[in-house]
Design a protein that fits this description.
The structure holds two protein chains of two kinds.
Chain A (H helix, E strand, L loop, with lengths): L2 E2 L3 H14 L5 E7 L2 E8 L9 E3 L2 H13 L3 E9 L8 H5 L7 E6 L6 E7 L5 E6 L1
Parallel strand pairs in A: 1-8, 5-6
Antiparallel strand pairs in A: 2-3, 2-5, 6-7, 7-8
Chain B lengths: L1 E5 L13 E5 L3 H11 L3 H5 L10 E5 L2 E2 L15 E6 L2 E3 L1
Parallel strand pairs in B: 1-5
Antiparallel strand pairs in B: 1-2, 3-4, 3-5
The chains are: A alpha/beta, B alpha+beta.
């Protein structure tokens, strides 16, 4: 299985974002270098049904890409939360995934101890888990 | 007119893996047509059957959202950077 090192501080940051956004889904990006995450970038969820869907605010996406360029970072992961369901890509997640080079990180809040898992989602919707060390 | 086009995400599949390329054209439609000439199929990745920008594709010309600026008729000034950014979205 592919593995990436997810620093504890970033894991805690995205879990904190998920908890602060509940019952809505939280979403954001993780920038890194050479495939290793270095920081999380919180983004606004502008989907009209934010309890079960997410859409990152497009202009924040543009600004995040530019900021990553300026810092010689790349997009390593896209994260979002599932407030009440498992940390696994839903059919909607698979249908709307357009970043095969990014790891999709899901944070589930359905249990007391949040579950954080990573996946690659190919263009055809095929999901492969990525271990988050 | 020469412009720089950047393609984060899956759209690079349509340009032979390139995420940054030079293109020419005075409007967004011209720029897309120019890229499609060199990378056939690109147009169909960003435009729907009705010839409009696909709903999950956001385009910025410099700081301007192309949708709010004429869509495919949006002017693309010489030297500008065009970012073609697939939406990041999903759901439970």
């Amino acid at each position: 299985m592919e593995r990436i090192a997810l620093p504890r501080a970033i894991r805690e940051e995205i879990v904190a974002h998920a908890r602060a956004s509940a019952p809505n889904e939280a979403c954001g990006l993780i920038a890194g270098r050479d495939g290793t995450p270095v920081r999380a970038i919180r983004c606004a969820n502008v989907h009209e049904t934010p309890t079960t869907r997410y859409r990152i605010e497009p202009r924040e996406q543009l600004q995040a890409f530019r900021a990553m360029d300026d810092r010689s970072e790349e997009l390593v992961a896209i994260y979002h939360s599932h407030p009440a369901s498992q940390a696994y890509p839903s059919p909607t997640d698979r249908a709307e995934a357009h970043y095969p080079d990014a790891v999709y990180i899901l944070v589930s809040l359905r249990t007391d101890e949040p579950e954080v898992r990573g996946f690659r989602i190919a263009a055809d919707g095929i999901v492969r888990e990525v271990a988050l060390d | 007119m020469a412009v720089t086009v950047r393609l984060p995400g899956a759209l690079r599949d349509a340009t032979g893996g390139k995420t940054k390329l030079e293109a020419s054209g005075g409007t967004l439609a011209d720029v897309i047509a120019d890229i499609d000439r060199r990378h056939p199929g690109f147009r169909g990745r960003v435009l729907d059957e009705g010839g409009k920008l696909r709903t999950y594709v956001n385009v910025y010309i410099g700081e301007d959202d192309a949708r709010a600026n004429g869509g495919l008729a949006a002017p693309v000034p010489e030297g500008s950077e065009v970012m073609v950014i697939p939406a990041m979205a999903g759901g439970t």
